[in-house]
Fold this sequence. Notes:
By secondary structure, this protein is α/β, with parallel strands linked by helices. It is built from 21 helices and 13 strands.
Amino acid sequence: MTQQIRRTAAASAALVLGVTACGGGSENAEATAWVLNGGVWPVVEEDIQGWSEENPDHAIQSESFANDVYKERIRLAVGSGEAPTLIVGWTGGTLLEYVEGDYVLDITEETAELNERLIDSVAENGIVDGATYAVPMNNVQPVVLYYNQDVFDEVGAEVPTDWDEMLTVIAEFNEAGVYPFALAGSSLWPMLMWSAYLTDRIGGPEAFEAVVAGEADAWSHPAIIEAIERIQELEQRGAFDPNYTGLSADQNEDAHLMADGHAAMLLQGSWVYSRLLDEQPDFVASGALGVTGFPSIPGGEGHPDSVVGNPANFWSVSTDASEEEQEAALSYLSEHLFNDEYVDQMLATGNIPPLEGLEDQIAEAENSEFLSFVYESVQEAPSFQLSWDQAVDPSQEQALLENLDLAFQGQITPEEFAENMNATQPGAE
Length: 429
């Protein structure tokens, strides 16, 4: 669905953090791009470097950051007029705020040919009020359920397909002394994957769409309340590593816990696969790594094939960059992004570009089983819900993470979670 919601000027002003924009570009300066590290990101940096070597007049200098560090730095940089020329984003509420504040360019004309190659459901996330302000620049990123087949075989358990089966295997793994699920709790955002999937399975995509639309008391939707209740039930049943609050997703500690056999399952983004290829190649090569969809909820209104996660990361172009810097960025997007070599490298590292017609290339890829699962999941999903922290108004993000953390640990009730979040809705008094 094309994003049509526009934030108020007051919400947009929050991005500035009290700093007056002073311009991020200077005449004759080199265009810049900040990227993340790990997973597919080295491929992105290599592509930018290759472009720069072939086009020295339109060169782009890249710099990489850990995920959480990047998120902290980019908001201040954009608001202060010191953003890189190419801005990595997740769309959702932040992109809407960027557009409202005139921080990013309308790139509809320059990316028209590129958009014709993209999967529509992914590309639409970069469109606001009919104009393109961001284009996908790496892999589709649904959240999937990873599991260690060797651990399942040792315990004699079956991979769960619904809620009741999941409760059964949690008990079986606890009895065997294996953590049922790894969870990187210190990073907080992995907890959102649980609340998002459970809400979607219980109430369908409409439950959270009301939150995104800014409706009053939307967080009190019965599906959200029940999702938090089920999360607390999981915690009480010992579903998660008891030390989960100390695990970091930036360090891939949750995935290592599963790969090393200490945990049986992991709910995480598809980007984890490429990191495991790099950091745990023997585990992946052994065939023990399995992947499936999130279990269904009997009686739930949501479709069992719907997915949540990030359609991709997206490039936007800063309005504070100089004309020369903007020209370099736009040339890169229109002439080079998703070139054949880039696509081949992404597939080789276990990542799916958001392009139509990749079936034959995926079938020939070394990681075809995983790639096919992800590609088909995205294409067949009735809905693809954007990660909650990216979908909500940016002013709500920190409160969401903090309150969900409290809910996971049983320090607030589901009703208190909803009450606290309702108070953060734009316009709430």
